[in-house]
Amino acid sequence: MTGPQGTTEEGRSQRELLGTASWFGRMALRGRLALLMTVAVSLAVVLCATVSWFVARSEMTKQVDQTLRQSVGPISRGLMENFSLCGDNVHGEMAAGNGTIVFGDGSTCPLSDTDPVVVTSGDVRLAAGSKPGADPSHAWRDGRTSSGQAVRVYTVGLGTATTTDGTVVPMALDVYQPLGPVQRALSGLAVILALVAAAVIAASV
User: Fold this and answer.
1) Rounded Cα distance, 100 and 67, in Å
2) Alpha helical stretches, state H, 27-85
3) What does the alpha-carbon distance between residue 179 and residue 33 come to, in Å, rounded to a whole number?
């Protein structure tokens, strides 16, 4: 059962709705058309600005991804025959560079990073499935370094390495690039698009 207070609030809402409808109905046809045109233009401008921002973000991300993909080659070509930065001599096709080696058992080995990327369970799963001679698996993701810096991460399988005791270990490589420049560019673009959208909407009123 609806109480007196509920009935009063419902009645108030109905009166407000009827008032709005009657206000719009009292407008001249030209005024109604102008109002509808303004609303349509405003929605179109906001939609275009939003789509433009997302397209720009997608293109910037693609550029970062391309840079990361290209960085894997030089690192792989600079292989070290005796890799001992992880506290254990590992023989295999590994190189010192800006990245982190991820082993299939979950252990990691930062290369020359001063601020290594935080490794995820997905990176470990990709490393665990890495096989020599097979097409390397790869994955892209947004991540963070140990200091909290936002980065774009490219993970690619490297096959296997053999430890000094003969254990064969599957591994992958995480390389990353800071997203700070991209985020600043997108923030500036958002401000510009917002100003342009506001100017267009103001001109159409």
Assistant:
1) 17
2) 29-77
3) 46
